[in-house]
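debug: dumping io for the single-chain case to check the tokenizer round-trip. Nothing else runs in this session.
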Amino acid sequence: MPILYNTGDWFTLGHGNTYRKIELYNMEWPETDLENMIVCAAPYGGPMAVVKDFTKFVKVTGSTKPVIRIFTASGHLISSINWNSGNLLAMGWSECEELICVQDDGLVLIYDMFGVYQHTFSMGQEAKDTKVIDAKIFPSGSGTGVAVMTTNFRVFLVNSVKEPKNRQLPEMPKSIADPNCWDIVTEERNTFALVSRDREIFKLHQGDSVCMLQNISMQSDYKFFATMAVSFNQRDIALYTNTGHIWMGSSNLKTKYCEFDTGRSERPKQLAWCVDVENSRQADALIVTYSSLLLVIGISGDSNVYTYDPAIFLIPEMDCVRVLTNSCHEMIQKVPKCVTNIFAINSQESSSFLFEAHKKFREKSHQSDEYLCLIKDTLEQAVAECVEAAGYEFDPETQKSLIRAAYFGKAFCACHNPDSYNLMCRILRVLNSIRHPKVGIPLTYRQFNHLKPNVILDRLVFRKHYALAIQIAKHLKLPESRILEHWALHKVIYDKNDEDVARKIAEKFRNPIALGVSFCTIAKKAQEIGRTKLAIMLLDQEPKASARVPLLLKLGENKKALLSATHSGDTDLVYMVLLQLKETTQLADFQMTVRSFQMAQNLFKKYCQQYNVSALKDIFTQEDDFASQAEFTLREGFAEMAGLETALSITANAYKKAHREIEAELCEEGRKLIKQQKVFSEKYSTSFYGLSVHETIKQLLTLGDLKTAEKFRNEYKVPDKRYWWLRIQVLSDNYQWDELEKFAKIKKSPIGYEPFVEMCIKQKNTDEARKYLLKCREDRKVKWYIRAGLSKEAALAAFDLKDLQSLYIIHMNASKTNDRQLINTVENYINQLSPKK
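debug: decoded output
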């Protein structure tokens, strides 16, 4: 079983600390001799940058300029960078998988994995002037940082390459000795440098004014520290002395784990901590490499040795260390406890018994039931351990065996929740697909959970593994929008056939709203790189007018923008297009464009009516819209009464041109009225402006000019009934009762005599009202007697008309005033008219 399930490469360092070596890839790169190379690999299974080590004297063929080649973890070439800049000093990778290159003049150049230049920043003028002798790329709380040491041994750093702010760390005390080694440590959001000089170690803390000397308790004899290494989690440090002794402890140098004598005098190639796979805050082993030897040292002092062909490179990870050689790519990792429980020799754990039970079941052995009986109380835990262990395995056959064992076990669990099982099956499919040599991202299960699926999808997309990314997104039930958009952007940049690109993108974006993708995003990129035709073709597919219209305007497609806006029915969008066109196009072109769209034309007229009246007038003139011209002129005339007569004349002519004869005639009459009112105003020294025909006659009657009023009312064909009303109203308002009586006797009133009574009552003249009440219709007299307050006459008239209802009203009014005589009279009338029983 150990050989079958990859336990042959397990080894133990101290009690309970089991480690294993797993082969990831047989390297597929072309003949590459790493012995004379510098290798810099990104964490989390990222790309690797390889460049010749020019500090070594080797025969060079071809150009002497460095060529940085970037490979996948499986050895497939991604890109090459012909280095034409300054003296390359150090390389590293950012958290976004960007290659960071530091020169000896303090310039930091950043490229993506495809060798595309991104940006540059400087580590400061002093670094440029004095030159840099070493550089470190390190993880920080702000992302990825860069630190440099100059020839005068000053340290400068930036905490984020995205927002580089250069800071100088405190200087070390002056000495004739040079620093031997140094490294950067990050504690949460604090960063400091540890610099070794002879037997001393100085802590250069960001923000401090002076450095601090650190005390190291070391029993072994040594002269200086040759090299040091900080763990991936920044919590541990290893110091390698000139005598081959190693001090291992916490990165604050306060806790010592152990001292170890390697027994070797040569300087090691590399040191790297192996962090615990289950506890990222703990590192239990240090890996040291020499030219052809790899030494694994536990913090308990135990060790294990592997021999290799020359050229070994270590790549620290959050839960393991990857080992890269010319021919293979391996991983050294502390074996997770769940895996140990299952595969350790003579393991008595329930998960191991479950695994054996499934194995016996497949062999059709009765022993399967015996194993299950042993673990019936802990079967749930055994299933969970088998599922978890499958996640930590790299070999697909081992994964299958563990998953099948878990599936077998959960069938005997009464209330097992299958969610964790189903999720692990999904994750394993994803991990196996991205670990494939063609993809070359050897992520562990813990790294997968740390990065999250969205980050992994982004990395696949950036590597242009679009089909795989979409399949993974579907498998994990994640949105595909970012993948599709990145694919479309790549098509826009690199595929030169506009029709073909537009067709392919339209096929993929069949339902853009449901997919959460936007044609506008792609069209904007096409516009940025000068592919205007393609941008327009893509915008034709965009369903959202609010997104489509602004970009059409930017592309100069004014008519299309206006058409889209009007079809959307969004008035705000139409106004946006109109106002932008008004600002950016010639007036004549603007007007011609707007005239083609009725909705836009109407909205622009409405806008002009509020904010630009002169433009509205121009529109009416250009369109020969005589009716609108007439209305516009009329409004202007009413706004300024002094010019109303002229405005009415112009309005009348406009209405005639519009074949609106009635309106034209009314305007002519209005102009004629204004002209006459001017004459009246001058004649009587009182204003007639703005009065209607009715009010003008009333004003003339009030002034006593009956002759002119009569003539005026005949001219405007004012009916007799209205004229009589006016005469009655004016005479009563002026208390001309005699004249009112004379007027009533001229001829029979066309409006009856009730208006006479009403005006008299209004002026509180009951005596005059009596005169005209006698002439009113009999059936109306009672009402007017009551309104005039003539209750006795009202009662008598009601009695004569046998109007009991009116008598009751009169009786109620009399009761309110307590008029006993009237009450008795009314009651007598009521009794006489009431039917006798």
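debug: round-trip ok. The chain has a mean pLDDT of 86.
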